[in-house]
Amino acid sequence: MKNKPFTIKTMTPNELDIAVEWAANEGWNPGLSDAQCYYQADPNGFLMGYLGDEPIASISVVKYNDMFGFLGFYIVAPQYRGLGYGWQIWQAGLQYLKGCNIALDGVVAQQDNYRKSGFKLAYRNIRFAGTGGSSASELSQIVPISTLSLAMLFDYEQAFFPADRNGFLRAWVNQANCHALAIMEAGKLAGYGVIRPCQSGYKIGPLFANSAQQAQQLFQALRAKTLPSDTVYLDVPEVNAAAVTLAQRNDMQPAFETARMYTLETPNLPLDRIYGVTSFEIG
Questions:
Q1: Quick count: other Cβ atoms within 10 Å of Cβ 43?
Q2: Looking at domain 6-120, what is its CATH homologous superfamily?
Q3: Which fold has domain 127-276?
Q4: Could you state, in chain order, the average pLDDT of each consecutive group of 10 residues for the chain (283 residues)?
Q5: How far is CA 113 from the centre of its chain?
Q6: In terms of pTM, does the model score above 0.90?
């Protein structure tokens, strides 16, 4: 092992599939089409570490612009942990995002390690799990996103993310076997959500809405796309009390949590309107 060189390369789409598989093995439960969508955000922002010809480490460092990036998929194959390979790919990732405000959703146990690299805690996210199926009534104001212009979606999304991610969004709302729904108010977009199949069950993300009532209506409509035997997950910013209440009201239970951290300032996002995080991997 010591005679094999450790090299770090930009991932190909096929190599990103490997990282998603590793994430599944870690219990992070990625979506079945996540790799293809994530790649649209920044094709250069996914790094794979090789020991000889063997892939052993990964990190994603999606650079949305020169000011903001998101770090995820930080994984080292279990048999190679504690040997310095993780540190090397971590440093390569931070170098790629040099000068950016970098965000991550890290496991809580690693917070102290992230602090050593300059990350500061902003708030916790809680993953809630519940059952699928719903008797949601048909509401005329809830429509498929496909019936709206992408420009309307892009314009609404601007408030919820620190940078333009239109290429990713276009792929996200059109991914295989997902349902992307919007809620309208007086002819304007007042919220939207996406539910997608994952390694286990389904995840709703994002879930953005202008009011708690609209978030509940969207949640019910999205959950109605699944069966009562399915498990549905929703990743909620703990600082949004109404979002936590929504999850609890729908008999969802905490299953996992992350620490949202930034290297610079915490962006001024409307957390009171974020009822579900898009993705723990790329923001």
A1: 15
A2: Gcn5-related N-acetyltransferase (GNAT) (3.40.630.30)
A3: Aminopeptidase (3.40.630)
A4: 85 90 90 91 95 96 96 95 96 97 92 94 97 80 96 97 96 96 96 97 98 96 96 98 98 95 97 97 91
A5: 21
A6: yes
